[in-house]
Design goal:
The chain is globular. The protein has a two-stranded antiparallel sheet. The longest helix is centred in the first third of the chain and has 29 residues. It is built from eleven helices and two strands; from the N terminus they run ααααααααββααα. A hairpin with a 5-residue loop joins strand 1 and strand 2. It is mainly alpha-helical.
């Protein structure tokens, strides 16, 4: 993929993320009053490790899901701008897939579909579709970060478009195959789906493998910057888990700090590696 083609991806992502930011901000004032009732009707609180451990200390707050959606789409927007600025004239086989990880946060906007359905009644089937698209977006982001780490190990895979297509098809198969309960949700306003524990375990395993791949790249290539990229990957993974799976004010605050720090560290060090190539 040429620089011009890749940069068009970045610019399209910036536009998409900006549209998502605008859409959620325009609807926020209408849907926020509904969050209290929807939180009371939620089947459970989030089931992530940090969330389960902190459930006895931090109380759910009704506005948090909307705030985390806004922060997620804004993160996708500003990260896309950052990556485009860093790599507009710099070739890097890893950065396209790392960017796909950041832009996948746009899918978090689908968590406002539940309150929107209360304002503009539409078929419940659309709720299930939105839930599947959210699953798709989250898994697509995780797999994209994994592919980025694979590229760092040195394989010369020129047809990045074909790799993206394979990731999309794989993720769609999984998202369409997971049973979704269209009538229940947790306090983050994410629909309840089957195999939640297995899904989280798979995500964590992929993040660990991705970080290890960057460490391996540092050893194979003798490039110390990959150590920092691995650290950035770990920070981004932890931040992501805290941001998108929380219903209290405390955890998302740490989440966006870790996510932003990890993104900046990984992007900056990748840029440093390829700056003179």
């Amino acid at each position: 993929m040429t620089l011009a083609q890749r940069n068009r991806f970045f610019k399209t992502g910036i536009i998409l993320a900006a549209a998502a930011c605008l859409a959620v901000l325009l609807n926020a004032w209408k849907i926020l009053p509904l969050y209290g009732t929807l939180a009371e009707q939620a089947s459970r609180r989030p089931q992530g490790l940090f969330q389960v451990l902190s459930a006895g200390f931090f109380q759910a707050a009704e506005a948090v899901p909307l705030v985390t959606v806004i922060v997620s789409v804004m993160y996708a927007f500003f990260s896309s701008i950052l990556i485009h600025a860093f790599f507009e004239k710099t070739q890097s086989p890893e950065i396209l897939f790392f960017w796909l990880f950041t832009i996948s946060f746009v899918f978090e906007i689908l968590r406002i579909i539940i309150p929107l359905q209360r304002i503009h009644p539409f078929p419940a089937a659309l709720l299930v579709l939105g839930a599947r698209l959210l699953i798709f977006g989250r898994l697509f982001g995780v797999l994209s970060l994994f592919v980025s780490s694979v590229y760092s190990s040195g394989p010369e895979i020129q047809k990045q478009g074909s790799v993206i297509f394979v990731v999309i098809i794989t993720t769609l198969i999984v998202a369409l195959g997971i049973p979704v309960d269209g009538l229940s949700w947790d306090t983050t306003l994410a629909m309840i789906s089957a195999y939640g524990s297995m899904f989280r375990l798979a995500e964590n395993a992929i993040f660990v493998i991705a970080a290890l791949s960057f460490f391996v790249s540092a050893y194979i290539k003798g490039t110390r910057e990959y150590h920092f990229i691995a650290a950035g990957t770990i920070l981004a993974a932890l931040g992501r888990a805290l941001l998108i799976n929380s219903d209290s004010w405390e955890l998302p605050l740490f989440g966006i700090v870790l996510l932003s720090a990890g993104t900046w560290l990984a992007a900056a060090k990748l840029h440093q590696i390829y700056l003179w190539l």
